[in-house]
Design a protein that fits this description.
By secondary structure, the chain is α+β, with helices and mostly antiparallel strands. It folds into two domains: 31 residues, no CATH class; 168 residues, Immunoglobulin-like (Sandwich), CATH 2.60.40. The chain contains three helices and 14 strands. The strands form four sheets. Strands 9, 10, 12, 13 and 14 form a five-stranded antiparallel β-sheet that branches. Strands 1-2-3-4 form a four-stranded antiparallel β-sheet, with no helix packed on it. The protein is globular. The chain starts with a strand and ends with a strand.
């Protein structure tokens, strides 16, 4: 069923309307033909591809706040989500159908030209995950407007993240421990983004993992 967005008589339409589907992208209206039902049974290859794509979609869903900042680029026709999805499908998902998993060391949660910091560390203290980073003194002023993106993902894909609580110049930040059994691995990532300059970002950095106490 289609929904009208906005208060105008001719608002933007989102959803199915007869044989047409309305889509709103960046505030603009687009229409496409609704797919017809197929009586052809999908091949095994198609089933595997669809399952892999569904796994990627499910994995990225809770990471949307980070993805929207880390992959956004003004005047780029591709959405942040599509760029993150492309990288995930190309180099991060491993395993065979139906047992897909994530190669956490190859996971990117942001991509961009901002310089990464010199040194990083992560540890657990008082039910928090403590992130620390260090920059060379001569470049601190060049990065003082950047926000630090802190991300923790358990081996079972629960996500804890912070996108606007800490600045790069803080040199430290923390996340609450997720609800997970003792011994669960928590994979940690750090990235930086300058929201004042077209959301320029750094490549995210994998800091390794900590284990639930």
């Amino acid at each position: 069923m289609a929904k009208i967005k906005g208060n105008h008589l001719f608002g933007l339409i989102s959803g199915r309307l007869g044989n047409t589907i309305g889509v709103i992208i960046n505030g603009k209206q687009y229409f496409r033909q609704a797919p017809s039902k197929s009586s052809v049974k999908p091949s095994q290859k198609q089933i595997m591809q669809r399952a892999r794509f569904a796994f990627a979609m499910k994995f990225l869903k809770p990471l949307r706040p980070v993805i929207q900042l880390g992959f956004y680029k003004r005047n780029d026709s591709r959405s942040a989500h599509n760029k993150a999805m492309s990288l995930l499908l190309q180099q991060t998902i491993k395993g065979e159908y139906p047992d897909y998993t994530i190669n956490f060391q190859k996971l990117y949660l942001s991509k961009g030209p901002i310089e990464r910091c010199d040194a990083t560390s992560v540890e657990i203290s008082d039910q928090n995950i403590i992130f620390q980073w260090k920059d060379a003194e001569e470049i601190i002023n060049d990065h003082k407007r950047e926000h630090a993106l802190l991300i923790a993902i358990t081996e079972h894909y629960e996500v804890v993240q912070s996108v606007d609580e800490y600045m790069r110049i803080d040199k430290t930040g923390k996340l609450s421990l997720p609800q997970a059994p003792s011994g669960t691995k928590i994979h940690c990532y750090l990235a930086f983004v300058d929201t004042k300059r077209s959301n320029r970002a750094s490549n995210s950095e994998y800091l390794g993992f900590v284990s639930m106490p």
